[in-house]
Write a structure and sequence with these properties.
alpha/beta, 5 strands, binds 5-O-phosphono-beta-D-ribofuranose
Length: 161
């Protein structure tokens, strides 16, 4: 089982590395490509269609500006696509709306602006549907995070940051 991480530009890599980090926490295999919907549409189509015959169970696609990449990927495949809006202008609102406002029939699951870690985590949750070990790991992960929050000391200084 593998996740294909696609980004519209090499400049997106610093944001998109969060997806790979989340997947690696749960030992899920991934591969990453730079493939733009606008600058290299033919290569994008070829890559996405090739994944149909592979172990890829999810695409994570990050793009900024007129971020059509996740939607175009979703148009070429029924493998689930998670879109990551990248903040390049307008605080990322342009990318967020470009990704989330898909027409009925061609869904893209969208995470928060620059939140590629959550995209990785959502892919892990998808994989956990058929992998009981992952389900347990995810439960432990949530519990550890909750414990860390509850142990955080809160004093007056928290309001001074
Ligand atoms: C989008 O335009 C990319 O996803 C990137 O976020 C943004 C800027 O790309 P570069 O001009 O840095 O290549 O297509």
């Amino acid at each position: 089982m593998k996740v294909a991480i696609i980004m519209g530009s090499k400049s997106d890599a610093k944001v998109m590395k969060g997806a790979a980090e989340a997947l690696e926490l749960f030992s899920i295999d991934w591969e990453a490509r730079v493939l733009s919907a606008h600058r290299a549409p033919a290569a994008l189509k070829e890559y996405v269609e090739k994944q149909e015959e592979s172990e890829t169970f999810c695409f994570i696609a990050g793009a900024g500006l007129a971020a059509h990449l996740p939607g175009v990927i979703a148009a070429y495949t029924t493998v689930p696509v998670i879109g990551v809006p990248i903040r390049a202008a307008f605080d990322g609102l342009d990318a967020l709306l470009s990704i989330v406002q898909m027409p009925k029939g061609v869904p893209v699951a969208t995470v928060g602006v620059n939140n590629s870690f959550n995209a990785g985590l959502l892919a892990v949750q998808m994989a956990s549907i058929i992998e009981p070990n992952l389900k347990k790991k995810l439960t432990d992960f949530r519990r550890e995070r909750a414990e860390a929050i509850l142990q955080e000391p809160v004093n007056r200084e928290v309001f001074n940051d």
